[in-house]
């Protein structure tokens, strides 16, 4: 358990963490009072949750009417009266909608949009996230007002002094982070101002889970000097895996990543998805093989059979009908289908194999040996999954356990701990980051000769080759929060006012090359991350004209791209010199310039 120092702020503050999961969501919070040591609390009471698998979570579902208006969320959406009204008024149910936000570059050959329940008409995933964040905020307010003495006065005392911690899977990147921030603004959590955005912290589910494990007394022996630890967050949609190493040179001891974080789309919903397909194939020819019956069986499998399954040698049962429903030829008796245990295990196996592959990848590339592995997340509560992973990991000499507590909502509590404790001091780059640029033609370089037909003359008279890639930060490099990476560039303009702004895109390379030189050699492996720009109109007025080819007048602007990767969100800036002083501009979207590597 972390011993925290008293809060040093001058005014009361509320920290709210929302974990919006694929299947379930949760809230944790901490009230920071000056001079008091922070304590992390969970929201354990939600509207209509008396029959929804535990008090610390709600199902991530919503109902929308035909005009796109939200009508019910969470446990309320499962009430009989709501279900009846939804059917009568043809409301549309939104579930697993978070998967529509997934980056398309995550390996997911087993998943496409047709496998995920469709979104309601007139709604996209960001709209639903906006509505759900607003609902969670209302739930948090209601809980605090009802659970604390003078609760309404307590809530009023926060004013706008509320910070939010929003978690996302390890594989979500800049575009998804921007969407989450936009949804928070649209939900009314914060205003769309720099001050409002500063009240939002984003954290990966892997890092939040690490902070949760640091809170658990059961994992204390795993966090020691010279010991590498791995955290597996097995959730409804994704499997997030991160590995860390503790150093005691700081007080309190800090941790740093020792391998690029992993994210696999093999959460528990895909076990349910495979179950539905298996039932369709198994019951072909049975009078219970209709889509209506299959849907009932699939739902019951998801709610009970999947959770209870532990031994492949024992049969499992899916209850879906009455005692009069039977079809012995298909193992259906008294309204329930009997499934051999090995068939059920086969539905889980692809997820287990994905976890094992990710674990093996982490161990292979980790810069320090790993000795302990912790399993958290709702899917981690599966006894079969725990046993399957234990049988694989322990023969490798790894200590494997599930921490105590509500591991299905470890992320929410860990997200608040992340905000308070900030224990991770360095993170590993998952990809190589840089920019597309042009390089000066070199007739002694075979790659340049091969691309000679695409050469571009510059105003200075030099010739450059486009489609080069200038790496700024390479995959696998461990980066502290304060470390900066930069690369210098120039742009030449025939007109001075063309230099009033400088801009370029930050590009992410996802391939296996250690030294990618050309963006056109593996075009599918390069994707735009963000665009950085700066208003340099003041400095452009001071540029002196130069003479180039055939006496052509031109202007040259020099600048640097600076990346700060050590935080949970990538920060990109452009740096330029004006009157002998360095100036910087933030990352925003602008039109491209042709830039050259220096």
Summarize it:
It contains 13 helices and 31 strands. With 598 residues, the chain is α+β, with helices and mostly antiparallel strands.
- Report on the biggest sheet: 8 strands, mixed
Tell me, rounded to a whole number, the average pLDDT.
88
Please count the helical segments.
Answer: 13
Rg: 27 Å
Number of strands: 31
Low-confidence runs of at least 5 consecutive residues: 589-598
User: What structural class do you assign from the helix and strand content?
Assistant: alpha+beta
Give an overview of the whole structure.
- The two termini are 51 Å apart.
- It contains 13 helices and 31 strands.
- Mean pLDDT is 88; it is low at 589-598.
- The strands form six sheets. Strands 10, 11, 12, 13, 17, 18, 19 and 23 form an eight-stranded mixed sheet that branches.
- Helix 2 (125-147) crosses helix 4.
- Strand 5 (62-64) and strand 6 form a beta hairpin.
- It is of the alpha+beta class and 598 residues long.
List the helices and strands and how they pair.
Elements: E1 13-20, E2 24-32, E3 41-42, E4 58-59, E5 62-64, E6 70-73, H1 80-88, E7 92-94, H2 125-147, H3 151-158, E8 162-168, H4 174-186, H5 194-197, E9 200-204, H6 205-215, E10 228-234, E11 239-247, E12 254-257, E13 262-264, H7 268-282, H8 291-308, E14 316-319, E15 332-333, E16 336-339, H9 341-365, E17 370-376, H10 383-393, E18 399-401, H11 410-421, E19 424-428, E20 432-440, H12 446-450, E21 456-457, E22 463-473, E23 478-480, E24 484-493, E25 501-509, E26 526-535, H13 537-540, E27 546-547, E28 553-564, E29 571-578, E30 581-585, E31 596-597
Parallel strand pairs: 1-8, 8-9, 10-17, 12-19, 17-18
Antiparallel strand pairs: 1-2, 2-3, 2-4, 5-6, 5-7, 10-11, 11-12, 11-13, 14-16, 15-16, 19-23, 20-22, 20-25, 21-22, 24-28, 24-31, 25-26, 27-28, 28-29, 29-30
Helix pairs in contact: 2-3, 2-4, 6-11, 7-8, 7-9, 9-10
């Amino acid at each position: 358990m972390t011993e925290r120092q008293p809060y040093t702020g001058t005014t009361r503050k509320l920290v709210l963490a929302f974990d919006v999961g694929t299947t379930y969501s949760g809230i944790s919070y901490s009230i920071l009072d000056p001079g008091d040591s922070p304590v992390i609390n969970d929201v354990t009471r939600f509207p209509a949750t008396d029959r929804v698998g535990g008090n610390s979570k709600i199902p991530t579902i919503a109902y929308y009417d035909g005009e796109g208006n939200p009508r019910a969320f969470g446990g309320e959406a499962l009430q009989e009266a709501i279900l009846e009204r939804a059917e009568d008024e043809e409301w549309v149910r939104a579930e697993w909608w978070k998967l529509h936000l997934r980056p398309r570059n995550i390996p997911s050959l087993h998943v496409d949009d047709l496998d995920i329940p469709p979104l309601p008409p007139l709604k996209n995933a960001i709209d639903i996230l906006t509505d759900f964040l607003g609902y969670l905020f209302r739930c948090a307010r209601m809980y605090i007002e009802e659970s604390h003495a003078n609760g309404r006065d307590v809530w009023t005392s926060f004013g706008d002094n509320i910070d939010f911690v929003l978690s996302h899977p390890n594989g979500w990147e800049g575009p998804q982070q921007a969407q989450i921030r936009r949804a928070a603004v649209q939900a009314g959590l914060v205003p769309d101002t720099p001050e409002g955005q500063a009240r939002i912290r984003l954290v990966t589910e892997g890092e939040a889970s690490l902070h949760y494990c640091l809170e658990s007394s059961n994992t204390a022996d795993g966090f020691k000097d010279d010991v590498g630890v791995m955290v597996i967050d097995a959730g409804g949609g994704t499997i997030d895996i991160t590995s860390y190493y503790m150093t005691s040179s700081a007080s309190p001891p800090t941790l740093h990543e020792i391998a690029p974080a992993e994210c696999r789309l093999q959460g528990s919903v895909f076990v349910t998805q495979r179950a539905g397909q298996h039932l369709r194939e198994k019951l072909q020819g049975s009078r219970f093989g209709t889509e209506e019956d299959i849907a009932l069986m699939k739902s019951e499998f998801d709610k009970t059979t999947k959770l209870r399954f532990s031994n492949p040698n024992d049969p499992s049962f899916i209850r879906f009908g009455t005692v009069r429903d039977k079809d012995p030829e298909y193992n259906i008796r008294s309204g329930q289908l009997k499934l051999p245990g090995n068939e059920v295990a086969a539905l889980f196996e692809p997820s287990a194999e994905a976890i094992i592959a990710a674990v093996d990848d982490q161990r292979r590339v980790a810069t320090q040996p790993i000795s302990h592995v912790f399993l958290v997340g709702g899917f981690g509560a599966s006894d079969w999954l725990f046993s399957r992973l234990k049988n694989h990991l322990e023969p490798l000499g790894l200590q494997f356990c599930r921490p105590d507590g509500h591991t299905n909502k470890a992320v929410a509590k860990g997200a608040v701990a992340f905000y308070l404790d900030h224990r991770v001091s360095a993170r590993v780059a998952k990809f190589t980051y840089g920019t597309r640029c042009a390089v000066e033609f070199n007739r002694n370089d075979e790659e340049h000769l091969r691309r000679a037909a695409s050469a571009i003359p510059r105003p200075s008279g030099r010739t450059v080759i486009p489609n080069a890639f200038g790496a700024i930060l390479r995959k696998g490099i461990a980066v502290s929060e304060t470390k900066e990476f930069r690369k210098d560039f120039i742009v030449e303009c025939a007109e001075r006012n063309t230099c009033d702004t400088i801009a370029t895109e930050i590009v992410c390379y996802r391939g296996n090359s250690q030294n990618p030189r050309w963006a056109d050699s593996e075009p599918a492996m390069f994707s735009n991350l963000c665009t950085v720009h700066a208003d340099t109109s003041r400095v452009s007025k001071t540029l002196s004209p130069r003479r180039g080819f055939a006496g052509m007048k031109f202007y040259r602007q020099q600048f640097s791209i600076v990346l700060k990767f050590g935080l949970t969100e990538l920060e990109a800036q452009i740096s330029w010199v004006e009157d002998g002083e360095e100036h910087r501009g933030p990352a925003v979207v602008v039109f491209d310039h042709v830039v050259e590597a220096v």
